[in-house]
Design brief:
With 340 residues, the protein is mainly α. Helix content is 83%, strand content 0%.
Length: 340
């Protein structure tokens, strides 16, 4: 028995890194697959509601697809508005940035007694023709990858909603052998993930609106862009709010004079993040979503390393799913308790 236990432990140590390696290697499949699973879970209550009213499944799936397309259309319109806003005032912003950064560098050089070594600012150098061509090529690659990911996610979402892949049956046949246990786990996963996604969406939405309004009232350029940026990056748990505040504070330093206006602007965007992310989000999440900070940071680093930005966004829902599964077995229940 001891030999069997030792063998199983060694196999587990070998298999776990192999699984993570495969997840990283086949990320182009697993990222849209996992994304689509979360999207399908979000629309399952609507699908059940339409099923009770005897609406054909084909029509129900078509309605869900139209809703997703509508959301993507609104997002694309917002991106176009923000990009037009940036292109219109790009030159004036670059001039302001060059003046402010040159003053800042000059102050550092005088303080540390360093001679000026560069006549041309790096920010202006960045927008030279050669660099623009390189950046344009990388942007095209990014757009192609994004479009392919969106199409694959839509395809997998339709499969989940059409029950071509039944998540509850997969649980029953692989991890949980008892039908009652698999249904119970599936319902718990569904409820907690739907709660998380809904709360995170609305918290991120109001955070983005608050950040955009703060930029508008304080005269900071590109309020639509910064509101959209704050909305999107807020889906990265804990880290996103810090990134948006720091980047926007640096940007405001270029736009605004270093006076009380800059101070109150930074204070206002910090209060927006604290109000929605630090106070309202934990209240709406409730006690069901209980994962400690260390677990969140570890999972952010792990899934960020494996899948990049999509991994950072999906790290917490994946952690919730893993935690629920660990709670089902007496031998792994203590791990779930450590995560709480």
């Amino acid at each position: 028995m001891k030999d069997i236990k030792t063998t199983n432990t060694l196999l587990l140590i070998i298999i776990i890194p192999l699984v993570f390696y495969l997840l990283k290697l086949l990320s182009f499949i697993f990222i849209p697959l996992v994304f689509s699973m979360f999207i399908a879970l979000l629309f399952l209550p609507l699908m059940r509601w339409m099923s009770k009213r005897k609406i054909p499944k084909t029509l129900s799936i078509l309605l869900v697809v139209l809703i997703i397309i509508g959301v993507l259309f609104v997002a694309s319109e917002l991106i176009q508005l923000s990009s037009k806003e940036i292109l219109v005032s790009k030159n004036s912003f670059l001039e302001k940035a060059e003046v402010k950064i040159s003053k800042l560098i000059l102050g550092f050089e005088q303080f540390f007694h360093i001679e000026e070594s560069r006549k041309e600012m790096a920010i202006a150098q960045y927008f030279k023709d050669n660099n623009l061509i390189k950046n344009f090529g990388s942007t095209l690659d990014f757009l192609k990858n994004t479009i392919s990911m969106i199409l694959m996610t839509m395809f997998f979402t339709i499969l989940w909603l059409a029950e071509s892949v039944n998540f509850q049956k997969v649980l029953n046949s692989t991890i949980l052998k008892q039908k009652h246990a698999s249904i119970k786990v599936f319902m718990k996963v569904e409820n907690e993930l739907i709660t998380f996604i809904k709360v995170k969406f609305f918290v991120s939405l109001f955070t983005g609106i608050g950040i955009g309004l703060a930029c508008y009232f304080f005269g900071v350029s590109f309020p639509i862009f910064w509101g959209l940026f704050a909305f999107l990056i807020n889906f990265i748990q804990m880290v996103g709010s810090f990134i948006s505040v720091i980047l926007l504070a640096v940007f405001a330093f270029v736009e605004l004079d270093p006076s009380s206006t800059l101070f109150f602007f930074i204070l206002s965007i910090t209060l927006v993040q604290v109000l929605f992310g630090g106070i309202l989000e934990p209240i709406f999440m409730g006690k069901s979503f209980s994962i400690n900070i260390i677990t969140i940071l570890v999972m952010l680093m792990l899934w960020g390393f494996i899948w990049g930005i999509p991994g950072l966004i999906m790290s917490i829902p994946i952690t919730v799913f893993v935690k629920i599964l660990l709670e089902q077995y007496p031998k792994t229940r203590f791990i779930a308790q450590l995560m709480s």
